[in-house]
Specification:
This protein is mostly helical. The chain has two domains: about 120 residues, no CATH class; about 130 residues, no CATH class. About 50% of the residues lie in helices and about 10% in strands. The chain is built from 19 helices and seven strands. The strands form three sheets. The protein has a three-stranded mixed beta sheet with strand order 4-1-5. Strands 2-3 form a two-stranded antiparallel sheet. Helix 14 crosses helix 16. The termini are far apart.
Length: about 350
């Protein structure tokens, strides 16, 4: 039987592993390499081992073999990679094998096992949620629209190095997408929550079964336009300001542009935003940045030590900003995508 290349086997084995894109220069890897080189017989004692999920486990006692159906290594990517690079001849490794049955039926159980295994050592919430079915599905759908949805840190860099098709896509980091969607679902100050809170407390606010890919993507595309306009506006005086203010600008635009809240127009709007001939009207965006900056300078929410971030994390900031948007500017925003 012809086997696929080793690299393909490795990618399939580790596709559920939240740590797969960790840099090879991380300290645990160096420690493992040192043990394998200097004390290979002690590797069993110094390493936590690996965890393997399998839909079916068959034990062949006479042959001393174990047959695994659709195996997935969910914890131990660094260990396996390091062993593969160093090829020790006198080392043993502990492996825990969990029979999970049909992976499509038992997805909730699988997610629970992955989270439990990876909480024993520091893994942030973004990584723990990286294999959530809604994120995996969104990644697949966005590729058909010309975007690469990065579920794991460094994933896009890793994938585009192997594929010219991936290299042609525009990268959307899940951390940015969740912030944009939170700004319009709840209030903009929630977009400034700690990253762990975004993926633990607010993940279910953003990711829903009933949402379409464009429901997620269009807020991100508009936010990206806003961020680029803000970055090039008013220079050094507002060096960090545009990034913090961009989510409030996005929310104002969503509140006053009816096209963005009309599902029947999302396909047409997506085509327009991605057209080479489309020119985003910068004037309303710049005016909104000016309004927000003036409110920031006069704000009673600002603490001397925490400054801008304190202002944008305050729950009442958006109310102050939205009440300051004049009627003529609201009309401009309503027609923002009419050109």
């Amino acid at each position: 039987m012809a086997l696929p290349p080793a690299k393909q086997i490795q990618e399939k084995l580790f596709s559920r592993n939240v740590r797969i894109f960790y840099s090879e220069s991380k300290k645990p890897n160096k420690a493992m390499k040192d043990t394998l080189a200097e004390q290979p017989q002690n590797f069993w004692y110094f390493n936590n081992g690996i965890t393997i999920l399998s839909e079916k486990v068959t034990l062949l006692k006479e042959d001393k073999k174990i047959i695994l159906k659709n195996p997935q290594i969910i914890n131990g990517c660094q260990t396996i990679s390091t062993i593969g690079e160093n090829r020790p001849s006198d080392s043993c490794l502990f492996a825990k094998i969990v029979e999970i049955g049909d992976s499509l039926i038992n997805q909730e159980l699988i997610d629970g096992i992955i989270e439990a295994n990876n909480r024993q050592t520091p893994v942030d919430e973004r990584m723990l949620k990286s294999n959530h079915p809604l994120q995996v599905r969104l990644q697949r759908h966005l590729e058909t629209l010309g975007y690469y949805f990065e579920r794991k840190e460094g994933q896009f860099r890793e994938e585009r190095a192997k594929s010219s098709r991936i290299n042609a896509l525009k990268c959307v980091k899940n951390i940015d997408l969740i912030k944009c969607n939170l700004a319009i679902i709840k209030l903009p100050h929630t977009s400034h929550a700690h990253e762990d809170d975004l993926f633990s407390s607010h993940f279910s606010d953003v990711f829903k079964d009933k949402k379409t890919p464009l429901d997620y993507l269009i807020p991100y595309i508009i936010w990206d336009y806003i961020s680029r306009i803000g970055k090039n506006y008013r220079g050094e005086k507002r060096k960090r300001f545009h990034k913090l203010a961009s989510f409030h600008v996005l929310r104002v635009i969503y509140d006053h542009c009816s096209d963005l809240n009309n599902n029947l127009k999302l396909n047409e709007l997506f085509k327009k935003l991605n057209s080479k001939s489309f020119e985003f009207n910068e004037s309303p965006v710049k005016q909104l940045f000016d309004i927000i900056y003036k409110k920031y300078e006069k704000s009673k929410f600002v603490d001397v030590d925490s400054g801008q971030r304190d202002f944008f994390k305050h729950k009442d900031t958006y109310k102050v900003v939205s009440e300051s948007v004049p009627a003529y500017l609201k009309r401009e925003i309503e027609n923002l995508f009419e050109n």
